Amino acid sequence: MQPVAAPSHRFRRLKRSVALRSMVQENTLSLGDLIWPVFLCDGVNTRQPVASMPGVERLSLDQVVKAAEEAAGLGIPAICLFPYTDPSVKTVGCEEAWNPDNLTNRAIRAIKAAVPEIAVMTDVALDPYNALGHDGLVVDGVILNDETVEALVKMALVQAEAGADILGPSDMMDGRIGAMRAALEGAGHQGVAILSYAAKYASAFYGPFRDAVGATGALKGDKKTYQMNPANAEEALRLVERDLREGADMVMVKPGMPYLDICRRVKDAFGAPTFAYQVSGEYAMIMAAAQNGWIDGDKAMIESLMAFKRAGCDGVLTYFAPRAARMIRAGL
Ligand code: PBG
């Protein structure tokens, strides 16, 4: 009988103990990787659960300040604000978007006054304020690009004025980054960073978010004339290149888990700070399966976040941020 040849490589040697496994671990998830998206609502001492996102609540101003304090205490570097807008405030002209005293701008000021060390990021898009639910201005059923960019610039300027550290244009209109950057420079806001939602796909995974911001009822049709076709990858690289050239400091791929190939390609092609957004539907999937006892929620969460690091991301927007931060602090 022939002797069995020894395997040329015994990969199991380095898997024998915690010590050896940790020595050869290639990627790590740390507190600095987390950006926490939170939802705002009117009122005082109010926390409204979002049914399709178990564990996520809309927070009134006093409560979002508490959340920011909690985040800073945990070591989370940034918080990102999304307003739930009452249908009575939504208009076809989206004027509330650039009201210096709208919910988002009041929240920016309250957080920066109470917790100056946390970076405040905002969403620059018209959908929370649009009676027609779109990220752009709609006239006769058509989403107008350049008029929307003008509106977004007004919105960006009041957010910068309120003290936002990072603006997140998520609208996918053409030319918005360049226009915003020029306006920020002109208004003395040279220090305000832009994290462009550069490769944002027209995705079914945004459903729970639209519930959270109250946009579900308003939106007629879909966002396919401005968000990306999920079948495309080369276009993502061209969009990122364009946004970096127009003055974006950082870029985002969104959603996250179904688009890890895009994260990797963007990071490899440009080397720019690259973020992924683990969106509401991704959060909801993990939570739903965990609540049914079908997967281990903590383990699935950490595995999903580590995947972004492995794909080359510098960080991730995730509704899991505080939960992940607690696990990271406890040593995972
Ligand atoms: C809209 C916006 C969306 C999200 C962030 N900004 C939804 C959309 O494009 O319809 C989705 C985030 C999530 O699903 O968690 N400007």
UniProtKB/TrEMBL annotation:
Superkingdom as given in the UniProt entry: Bacteria
Keyword line: Heme biosynthesis, Lyase, Porphyrin biosynthesis
Annotated gene: hemB
GO terms under biological process: protoporphyrinogen IX biosynthetic process
Subunit structure: Homooctamer.
Catalytically driven reaction(s): 2 5-aminolevulinate = porphobilinogen + 2 H2O + H(+)
SUPFAM superfamilies registered for this protein in UniProt: Aldolase
NCBIfam families: PRK09283.1
Lineage: Bacteria, Pseudomonadati, Pseudomonadota, Alphaproteobacteria, Rhodobacterales
Similarity section: Belongs to the ALAD family.
SMART domains: ALAD
Source species of the chain: Tabrizicola oligotrophica
Active-site feature positions: 200, 254
A GO cellular component annotation in the UniProt record: cytosol
Signal peptide: none
Pathways involved: Porphyrin-containing compound metabolism; protoporphyrin-IX biosynthesis; coproporphyrinogen-III from 5-aminolevulinate: step 1/4
InterPro entries linked: ALAD (IPR001731), ALAD_AS (IPR030656), Aldolase_TIM (IPR013785)
GO molecular function: porphobilinogen synthase activity; zinc ion binding
Protein EC: 4.2.1.24
Protein name: Delta-aminolevulinic acid dehydratase
Enzyme class: lyase
Matches recorded under Pfam families: ALAD
